[in-house]
Design goal:
alpha+beta, PmbA/TldD fold, six-stranded mixed beta sheet, 459 residues, 22 strands, 2 domains, 10 helices
Length: 459
């Protein structure tokens, strides 16, 4: 891949002030097991190449699926032509924050390479999890396990002298368990994902998760409908993680720069208290194993934990080099792209609400009557969050009751309802998600402790 650096000289000869070439090679295996049968196994290898040039303050971008010199030179020529066309009509005046050019090679260290694990070994744990769930009760009528592992090799060469090679692993498992009794059908969903190979199993036990989801599906067959209205609510780590993700997403510099948008509510509010003093929220792409972990972002900037909210105060935005220059600050290492065919943009990685000191039992003590909600079936994200939870239980006189409720839908205005958080747990877990925008998809996660709201709307 070293020859890629030489072609960048052509971009400078054509008048570009900056250029970079990104190459992404993805080795992926997807597998689906339905009711104990392996229904689909799809191995694939994808190569994408993206060339980005900056000409008189305008980006030009071109892609190809080859690393041959001729194809790269053509892509550079096309990118420069696009940038020149944009500059001719007076479009934009982009500048990049200065960074030190890095040469580094980041290999898999202490992580198994899923490309070297036999398919039979991957299937074994999934089939065993499926078997446990189906044999639990005849009312379990359908099980589906969707498995994916991926090893992504990323190359970045820049005209500033940057040369980075990094391998990023990712493995995920999605569970869907369906139970039926008479005309009543209930479904539970679980997700497990990590920046890891088969070490994914160290983050949670798939067999235990499958069994737990099957038991919850059976419990939902006799569950009552939850009450509606505003009431005390305790939410689990997954729902807390969704909240963290929404906050960090609104703190991306691109969204925070559009005040007229519903997602632009953080515009001009750095240094101001916008959330309760008890909340600290971090975005951390360096956290080992979490789904969006990496050492360097798509612009070659080294990643670092970024404190978004500290004691309720907005500390800053997630930046690329372009947005950092506009805001007079430094890049944060959050320029991300699904692969080299897309331009890097500021994007959330692993959003984390910092735990506090309440034990699980202490969270319930002061609740006279309320609901404990856990799990997520679906959600809309942004300032206004509507979250369909999976399952719930009644809280009465400080005690968690055995009565099972269907998962209520919760509605939050984050800038208002987070002020009703009156207790934060000491535990931690995370929710892996895939954030989609048009034809782009990003692996992200949100995590945190259990949270207690004095009042929250149930619909």
């Amino acid at each position: 891949m070293e020859e890629l650096a030489s072609v960048l000289e052509r971009a400078l000869e054509l008048g570009a002030s900056y250029a970079d070439v990104r190459v992404t090679k993805s080795f992926r295996t997807r597998m689906s097991v339905v009711n104990g049968n392996v229904e689909r196994v799809v191995p694939s290898v994808d190569l994408s190449v993206g060339v980005r040039v900056l000409y008189q303050g305008v980006w030009g971008f071109s892609t190809c699926n080859s690393t041959s010199k001729d194809d790269l030179l053509e892509a550079i020529s096309n990118a420069v032509k696009l940038a020149k066309a944009g500059s001719s009509i007076g479009a934009g005046r982009i500048q990049l924050a200065k960074v030190k050019a890095v040469t580094d090679r980041v290999e898999l260290e202490g992580i198994s390479d899923s490309r070297e694990v036999p398919l039979e070994e991957k299937q074994e744990i999934i089939l065993e999890s499926d078997k446990i769930a189906r044999e639990l009760d005849p009312r379990i009528v359908r099980t589906q396990f969707d498995y994916e592992d991926c090893v992504v090799e990323r190359h970045l060469f820049s005209s500033e002298g940057g040369k980075i090679y990094e391998i990023n692993p990712f493995t995920s498992l999605r569970f869907t368990i369906t139970a039926r009794e008479g005309d009543r059908i209930e479904r539970t969903i679980g997700r497990l994902a990590a920046s890891a190979g088969q070490e994914l199993l160290a983050f949670a036990d798939p067999i235990e998760m499958a069994q737990g989801l099957a038991m919850e599906a059976l419990d939902l067959l006799k569950a009552k409908h939850p009450p509606s209205g505003r009431m005390p609510i305790i939410v689990d780590n997954k729902i807390a993680g969704l909240i963290a993700l929404c906050v960090d997403l609104m703190a991306t510099a691109t969204l925070a720069s559009v005040p007229e948008s519903e997602m632009g509510v953080f515009y001009g509010r750095v240094g101001k208290q916008i959330l309760p003093e008890t909340l600290d929220i971090t975005d951390d792409p360096t956290s080992p194993g979490l789904p969006a972990s990496y050492k360097y972002d798509e612009e070659g900037v080294e990643s670092r934990p970024m404190k978004i909210i500290e004691a309720g105060v907005l500390k800053g935005y997630l930046h690329s080099r372009e947005t950092a220059y506009k805001h007079g600050t430094s890049p944060t290492g959050h320029a991300r792209a699904p692969n080299a065919s897309f331009l890097p943009v500021p994007m959330v990685s692993n959003a984390i609400i910092d735990p506090r000191d309440y034990t699980f039992e202490e969270l319930f003590e002061d609740v006279e009557r309320g609901i404990y909600a856990r799990g997520i079936v679906g959600a809309t994200i942004g300032r206004f969050v509507q979250c369909k939870t999976m399952i719930a239980q009644t809280i009465e006189n400080g005690e968690l009751k055995d009565e099972i409720l269907k998962g209520p839908s919760l509605r939050l205005d984050l800038l208002k309802d987070l002020f009703s958080i009156d207790a934060i747990g000491s535990d931690y877990d995370y929710l892996p998600l895939r954030l989609t925008r048009a034809d782009e998809a990003y692996s992200v996660s949100g995590g945190g402790p259990h949270l207690r709201f004095s009042q929250l709307e149930v619909i």
